[in-house]
Design goal:
The chain has 446 residues and is an alpha+beta fold. The chain contains eleven helices and 24 strands.
């Protein structure tokens, strides 16, 4: 027996574990060596079947013989019995320690056995419990898996467990680490990237996720972190890739990967509600995203107007006069205005300085032109003051100089858009246009 490997190391080599339990019905069989009777647990029933077979008291089907070959040497004999007994002796009454990630028919969950908590990945909901272990039984003081509070468990490796709940639910658990998972600190949502790896799309959900590269192929991952040091486990083979995390602002962070590549991540949650597009909660109207003709706040919003009044008052103290020369515009008015420019200058030129109906920020009630909506305003002291200070009041200069290929419009020193103080400060500090900040485009589709 000295040359025989321990049950633990042998079983890791022999086990073929399904990676997608969430789509598997509770009655399906997991391919685990040692589970002879197919009940998704390694228990005394399996031991008795193997013993009976070795002693000639019962037969095993060809399928059962495959699972009864615990040590993987091609035959079922006393060595397999010994290894199962070794497993029972080693793990009998052994409570799991630390944090474990469970995948099963109830979705992905995080168990922390020290604190006695289980967290639902989809919602972050936490259930606290007390648990005792009796041989290979876990007994919970409340229902923590549907309507079940008792499970049989099998160790199928030093860092993997199977739980079979009384109601038939099966969960695979793999060891995550000693520390509890702080759900509120996890990354979440969709991010698009730029950097040395090109444009990629990441979807984070709890400590799991997937990403898609330029070639369109997707790959799943999990990650752990300690401070700003992150470790990603990529794909089904869980290949490790390390990175250093750096927060940039509320919508951006960067990862410096272990090969030195820096990748910038931009949160991008695009939702359309009643025909209105919101990106990360920000109402967007540009050449790509249009407002419906029925959208009509009727005037500059009260919040944007109040912010302008504060900006106007402070500008006056500094010796500058600010007035709104064009504020809210309805869809129909914008249509008349745009068509008049097309008749005068042609469509191609009009598109460089005027929005088509539905695509104008003025329709949002959050944008305004100040003092003089013409190029003659560009180099005035007022224009310079607005560019340097409007962010303090929650505005951004929407169409800055040299960014026409991004915003779709020529430089307009007079046009500001209200975002709120915190967000306007972030956009101003980034030196980016709103399109760049959100990783969206502004291009008419026809």
């Amino acid at each position: 027996m000295k040359n025989k490997r321990s049950f633990l190391s042998k079983l890791i080599a022999a086990a073929i574990i399904s990676c997608c339990f969430s789509s598997m019905p509770s009655s399906a069989r997991n391919s685990i060596h040692g589970d002879v009777n197919g009940d998704n647990i390694i228990g005394y029933g399996d031991l008795r079947l193997i013993q009976g077979y070795v002693l000639g008291k019962n037969e095993l089907t060809a399928d059962q013989l495959t699972y009864a070959d615990v040590d993987g040497d091609g035959r079922v004999d006393a060595f397999d019995i010994t290894m199962l007994k070794e497993n029972f002796n080693e793990h009998m009454n052994k409570m799991p320690q630390g944090t474990w990630i469970a995948s099963g028919s109830k979705g992905k969950r995080y168990y922390n056995f020290e604190k006695g908590t289980v967290t639902e990945e989809s919602s972050g909901a936490v259930t606290s419990y007390k648990c005792t272990v009796s041989e290979t039984n876990l007994n919970f003081d409340k229902n923590v898996c549907g309507d079940a509070n008792h499970a049989l468990f099998s160790w199928i490796g030093s860092d993997k467990l199977l739980l079979r709940w009384d109601k038939g639910y099966v969960e695979e658990l793999h060891y995550y680490g000693n520390a509890a998972i702080n759900y509120s600190s996890l990354l979440s949502g969709k991010y698009v990237t730029s950097g040395g790896y090109g444009k990629r799309t990441f979807n984070f959900k709890g400590i799991s996720g997937s990403f898609t590269g330029q070639n369109g192929s997707g790959l799943g991952f999990e990650y752990t972190f300690s401070g700003n040091n992150y470790t990603f486990y990529m794909g089904t083979d869980r290949k490790q890739k390390k990175a250093v995390y750096k927060k940039i602002d509320s919508m951006h962070f960067s990862l410096t990967w272990d090969d030195g590549t820096v990748e910038r991540f931009t949160k991008q949650d695009i939702q359309v509600k009643n025909g209105i597009t919101y990106v990360n909660g920000i109402l967007i109207a540009n050449k790509t995203y249009a407002l419906p003709s029925t959208y009509n706040p009727g005037a500059i919003t009260s919040e944007a107007q109040s912010a302008f009044n504060s900006m106007k008052a402070d500008a006056a103290k500094a010796g500058y006069t600010l007035t709104i020369c064009s504020g809210f515009r309805s869809y129909s008015y914008q249509s008349q205005l745009y068509n008049s420019y097309v008749n005068r200058d042609g469509k191609a030129k009009a598109d460089t300085y005027s929005a088509r109906p539905g695509h104008s920020e003025h329709q949002t009630g959050l944008a305004m032109d100040i003092n003089n909506a013409s190029d003659s305003f560009n180099n005035t002291p007022e224009a310079k003051w607005i560019a340097a200070n409007c962010w303090k009041y929650g505005f951004i200069l929407r169409y800055p100089q040299g960014k026409q290929n991004i915003t779709g419009y020529k430089y307009e020193s007079w046009h500001v858009r209200y975002l709120g103080k915190d967000l306007a400060k972030e956009v101003y500090n980034s030196g980016l246009t709103l399109e760049e900040f959100l990783c969206i485009d502004s291009v008419y589709k026809n």
